[in-house]
Amino acid sequence: MAYKSLLTVLTSVGSVDTILPAAIDLARRNDAHLEVLCLGIDRTQAGYYYAGAAIVLQQDLIDRAQEDARALESKAQNRLKSEEIRWSTESAVAQLGALNELVSARARFNDLVILPKPFGTDRGQEDEAIVEAALFDGQAPVLVLPETGLGDRIGDRVVVGWNQSSEALTAIRRAMPFLRSAELVNIAVIDPPKHGAERSDPGGQLSQMLTRHGVHAEVSVLAKTMPRVSDIIKRHVNDQNATLLVMGAYGHSRFREAILGGATRAMLEQTDVPVLMAH
Questions:
Q1: Superfamily the domain 5-145 falls into
Q2: How many angstroms separate the CA atoms of 263 and 266, rounded?
Q3: Does the pLDDT of residue 41 top 90, yes or no?
Q4: What is the pTM for the complete model shown?
Q5: Where in the chain is the domain with CATH 3.40.50.620?
Q6: Contacts of 215 (CB under 8 A, 6+ apart)
Q7: Reported confidence tier of residue 59, pLDDT bands at 50, 70, 90
Q8: Which pLDDT value is given to residue 119?
Q9: Assigned fold of 157-278
């Protein structure tokens, strides 16, 4: 079992030097085909255009987005030509409101989507929109990379966030290629319910399932000693010297997560290791 079809979406020239090398590395390790979508963002309806402005201004912004997309594709192709992997590129222009349809249509036919962390000083609305498009309508697992990239030891030690949810189980199943090749998989259960289905053996059934797949798994039951679940997970990832975190995405509605915050958003904001998510 391996990832045979990979997708990455580039929206900035800088991502060609950070995200693309990671995607190439994963394609090489899995003997996979890498699809690269190079996007120019048309911002004429995202606060950059106001009523009464000349139509020339709108066209100028669209032309600029097209130039950005072509420049991205050209740079990506120059980088890919020297690699001994199977690859293809596509350039496109989209407004923020149309990103979902464009990205999800590509993501649903790929085994894994590799994207940069969507939150940070150099990130825009499009980065979050692309992650959500791949996860929800694309129904694809997404590997979100921190600023440090993939890392040399990606997936040798993996922490799995387990809360008995369908989102977490989906992420675990989609992460199986990483889990089967890991030296150790640590199942992290935070403050399990006293009267839940796993009250007598938290994480036990999941550990058994993974073991049957040849995964070396162990379980850590963690107390909720910090207000935010994301802080507990991050500390545990560091304690385990893990190089990959697997977790379900958006257990609550995205609207609630956006207003109140949640483990998904918090982890994406502060993670120092790659995070594989699915919904």
A1: HUPs (3.40.50.620)
A2: 5
A3: yes
A4: 0.91
A5: 5-145, 157-278
A6: 179, 180, 182, 185
A7: confident
A8: 87
A9: Rossmann fold (3.40.50)
